[in-house]
Specification:
It comes from Actinomadura gamaensis. This protein has about 180 residues and is α+β, with helices and mostly antiparallel strands. Helices cover about 25% and strands about 30% of the residues. It is built from 3 helices and 7 strands, in the order H-E-E-E-E-E-E-E-H-H. The chain has helices at about 25-40, 120-135, 145-160, and strands at about 45-50, 60-65, 65-75, 80-90, 90-100, 105-110, 115-120. The strands form 2 sheets. Strands 1-2-3-6-7 form a 5-stranded antiparallel beta sheet. It starts with about 25 loop residues before the first helix and ends in a 23-residue tail after the last helix.
């Protein structure tokens, strides 16, 4: 098992757009393993490479008992939106209502460079959007209206972990439909 520390809100790597993967090699396969092991250990519904301090366009997901990963994703989103509680392993213990497209189609590659498509609604669509946002340097609170975002920032600043570059103790994330995204 290769569980790595998860970067917390405030770490600049979370605001830096990730670079496309160019080499589908042993290092990429190890990164996918590290992401998967860390996500499952957390537990979470998804985890993006920047959350482990790696600036590459890769994320893993585990939604409705389906485990997968996506490299260099592009998204096609439905116009229909829904607002639901969303959490993040980089903002442990907190969740906030966040608008997202109800349906998402994500296209990209697996760790071997083979093209894949991930299609989903509701939680899977939310997860894919959330993790792709991480690859673009966007955190889910950026999707909230200004008043809600202000309240979320207050809760983050008051959180026990705020200001730590890496948590020293394991913090149980708020569970959104069973897991933090």
């Amino acid at each position: 098992m290769s569980v790595k520390p998860i970067r917390l809100f405030g770490d600049p790597v979370l605001r830096t757009p990730a670079e496309p993967v160019r080499d589908f090699d042993k290092e990429l396969r190890q990164l996918v393993k590290d992401l998967t092991d860390t996500m499952i250990d957390a537990p979470g519904a998804g985890l993006a490479a920047p959350q482990l301090g790696v600036g590459l366009r890769v994320f893993t997901y585990y939604v409705d008992d389906v485990l997968g990963h996506l490299v260099n994703p592009t998204l096609d989103l439905s116009d229909e939106q829904e607002t639901g509680d969303e959490g993040c392993l980089s903002i442990p213990g907190l969740a906030f209502p966040t608008p997202r497209a109800v349906r998402a189609v994500a296209k990209g590659f697996n760790m071997h460079g083979e093209p894949i498509t991930v299609e989903g609604t509701h939680l899977l669509a939310r997860c894919v959007q959330h993790e792709t946002d991480h690859l673009d340097g966007i955190i889910f609170i950026d999707r909230m209206d200004p008043e809600q975002r202000k309240a979320a920032m207050k809760a983050i600043r008051e959180a026990e972990w705020f200001g730590d570059p890496v948590p020293q103790v394991k913090v149980s994330p708020h569970r959104t439909l069973g897991k933090a995204i």
